Amino acid sequence: MFPLSRSFAAGLIGFLLVMQSGCGNVSSPAKAVAPAAVQELDSKRLPVTTATAPAQPALPQVRQEFRAAWVATVANLDWPSRPGLPSNQQQAEVRTILDRAVALNLNAIVLQVRPTADAIYPSALEPWSAYLTGKQGQPPQPEYDPLTFWISEAHARSLELHAWFNPYRAWHRQINMPLSDQHVVRNQAGWVRQYGDYLWLDPGEPAASERALAVMADVLRRYDIDGIQIDDYFYPYPIPAAGKAGKRGAVQDFPDQATWSRYQASGGKLSRADWRRDNVNRLVEATHHLVRKEKPWVKFGISPFGIGRPDLRPNGIVGFSQYDQLYADAELWLAQGWVDYLAPQLYWPVNQPRQAFSVLLASWQRANPLGRHIWPGLNVSRLDGSPTGWSANEINRQIEASRQPAGQSGQLHFSMRTLLQNQQAIGAALLEQSYAEPALLPSYPWWGNRRPAMPGLHALGNAQLQVDASRSEPARLAVWKQYKHGWQLGIQAASKNTIGLAAHPQWGEVLAVAVKVQDRAGLLSDAAVWQVRSSPGPA
After folding, report:
1. First CA to last CA across the chain, in angstroms?
2. What is the pLDDT of residues 483-535, one digit of tens each?
3. How many CA atoms lie within 13 A of 319 on its CB side?
4. Which among 303, 307, 354, 528 is least surrounded, fewest beta carbons within 10 Å?
């Protein structure tokens, strides 16, 4: 993903157990929702001007769509803007990023928390990342927990926060910062292989996979994250074989002879390629079981390279084989139901025939027998103003293509820097077209369908409602306000349990309010409706 290049499950789980708001634009009228409970305003408690509203409002349909941006910390690509910033400046940049996400009607951030076997949070397993302070192992000053800060600020804005891990990338020799003694390259050198300029944890080394899983388990248990995501770096992207630059396709093999020989000596019968894929598959399966066991409301996703297995590709599609060279069998992960979402990196334009966006997306959807979410990664970094760069319209076209067939949809944008810098006026393009209205997060039908209870609504003071969602475990509130011209949707964090009833400067008086609770599984309650009465005084 980063543009510098881009049974075992039970055993690993056992090992770890031992270790131990803003409103969107006006929605257009749509189909009515299921009958909603109606509550009248108690005029003794809250005087209002005369207004009427239908007892059973036809609320506009709301799109359920995952709209995320990747925030890369490696090489300070997105955050922090440079190493060594004081903590208050790091925090100010976080708020700027999250405010921009809200302004663009995004609803999730995918934050890189383990870029190179290091951590952007305090960890007993791995050192502080040098991308924070310029010195690996040194905490930010004044000391604080960046991951806790990110989560708190994201949730306050009703954004999900997914923690993004690189399981095997350990270091790059061109990084001009010294390694800490706590780093795996220093204290577990036997797990590490040099591959070109990279130092890489060998996926065939069980202890290396156990470390990756332990790191994810630690974050899962200690932090209120909404998701765990692994990107496309499994085995490294191949580099040309030394002395064979003129031989087309000749690449340097990954130096895992020691672990391969150990596997063979133990009686292993798989081919070397199948063995490598099995190493990756075991980590994926173990992560799935870990998440389901520890916090079943947390989503597990993977963002692989965008082209699938050669034998399953549509006619005319050509390109790099992650199945054969990264040893990533993404189709198997879908077939086994090990992921809640797959975000293939479809980093090509809609009209590029040999890597056609819609054709590739449809091929991933066909490889999805259990109906997991398929949300493409979009390469907004191509909005760079170069002669070969894209226009913002290309991104809108890709978003519209990702919404076929109809239903819950999603997109992830690489990366936040482009959105923050508003390259090619991408902000206005999104808000005028694809993201003109806010979206609620998707649900996960394979988790079950127990919907949250309908909230209660109560007058609070003389210009607010209070939402009582104590019968549920809410993540956010969908709040519709009715004005003379129609309903307007706003999405707010459940922790913000009050709703203002002041008149809008353009649209006038609030005639009615409808509120639904959405839980962390994306399921919605029935709507509770507050209906304004005609005048103050006894009912």
Report:
1. 62
2. 999 999 999 999 999 999 999 999 999 999 999 999 999 999 999 999 875 43
3. 21
4. 354
